[in-house]
């Protein structure tokens, strides 16, 4: 069994799928992203899991999909940016003071892309937003103490830990006991019949997207590629300038102020009609504005409720803010990469692999929720976390770093021009096909808040 099929088998079982479906996957291509970890196996397996879920959905609706063809190289490339601007440029992915810093006893990563996270870090460090001054201030702190101080101030930071340190840490212990994918059936869906479209298998499925950087938007982008009506909701002041052109593909994007009763009333109406809700906020974020899990279930008993968080759903860090790059530092991935490379500073994965893999796992969970609902008449709740997916990656046998992919080329992109809100662009070719069907999107990438918060 190849590394991809091994990883896919474990993922598919975690999603509650029957193992015989894995036999329908045909992987083509060789090579790996350069890493001490099996990143390309993870990429192909997580995208393959979403493909299997869709194949199962098609089969249930009388449209057998045949084999699922999976391109290993393209799957790996989709774990980076999928868009190539033509005549314009994406903004920098990282804030100017966001790199790793030496502390008095190790390393720490500051995540300062969001203005309020930047302000929290600078407030704790009592310094100006200049890299040299930040480095000098960080160097006076112990890594754990600075991490605690910044997180307590509402910011985001992660000290670099080894794998053994993480596995002994109370949060690492908690994450290790959680299932890779949690699923619970809930509520009666009532009549949810719709006309199945062979060409667009998720056409007519309403997906409410309450996500941000980066796993959740990856999940809903894929659902949109299969034909779902994806409506993304953001707060009035939230922006993702470096990521929106990549992840808003196929979606309508609106804004709601959930601090107001008017905004909450609109969201209640949207939840009532949704088939799938994907949430990427912290575990208590929706609860604090009146949309906790029980409220969502009461509004819509047949809802397929899919959630992720950063550091897991139990343990002392269950509600901690976090991102892929921070989880890599916490969970020992950056330290393991440093040792493998022989370097003297954190060596993260070559792409935000935990984010992307989690996104495709969420997409697979959402589609499996549709299968479950059609079969049993029940809604369902699904969840995972970046930290738990990091554990899954860490357990995979390491790939061959010598067999790397050739450089990105024009042949990796579709020839068609995508007319995004920022200008023309090319998109990577889809990594997945089934019985002649491929992933296609009905709308180009667009700006956050450009649409009205209502279903089509």
Describe the structure.
The chain is an alpha/beta fold and 456 residues long. Helix content is 38%, strand content 16%. It contains 17 helices and 17 strands. The protein has helices at 3-14, 39-60, 72-77, 115-125, 131-138, 143-152, 163-168, 170-177, 215-225, 244-247, 261-273, 285-288, 293-299, 324-330, 333-341, 353-376, 386-395, and strands spanning 25-28, 68-71, 83-85, 100-102, 107-110, 157-159, 182-188, 206-210, 229-234, 252-255, 276-279, 304-309, 378-385, 418-420, 423-427, 432-434, 437-438. The strands form four sheets. It has a seven-stranded mixed sheet with strand order 7-13-12-11-8-9-10, sandwiched between helices. A four-stranded mixed sheet has the order 1-2-16-17. Strand 8, helix 9 (215-225) and strand 9 form a beta-alpha-beta unit. Helix 1 packs across helix 2, helix 9 crosses helix 16 and helix 16 (353-376) crosses helix 17 (386-395). The longest helix is centred in the C-terminal third of the chain and has 24 residues, at 353-376. 52% of the residues are buried. The model has no long low-confidence stretch (mean pLDDT 94).
